[in-house]
Protein: Large ribosomal subunit protein uL18
Amino acid sequence: MANSKRVLFQKRRLRVRNKLRKVNAGRVRLSVHRSNKNISVQLIDDVQGKTLAAASTLEKDLGYVGKNNVEAATKVGQVIAERALAAGVTEAYFDRGGFIFHGKVKALADAAREAGLKI
Structure:
């Protein structure tokens, strides 16, 4: 199977990332990774190659809320926005990777916007 789920996901991820890099040169990247149980996000400066801030549901205070993990993703979005503002970052571009922009990913982005991060 040449077009397995993983291969299609990788293609989608690279397509999204390359389009965003062309448009948003100079801004830091808010990169999201979602699994079935957890969601994590990093604020990455691609010019320096450094992670400026990170948040994840694997942290004790941001952990699993219940069957609906949208609440946990909302918490992670608020925390990453606070950490970004503390690091001096006010604008970032949202790299959803190969994930569809709905559910947990959308809740994280909306919470980060409400907390003051310009995406």
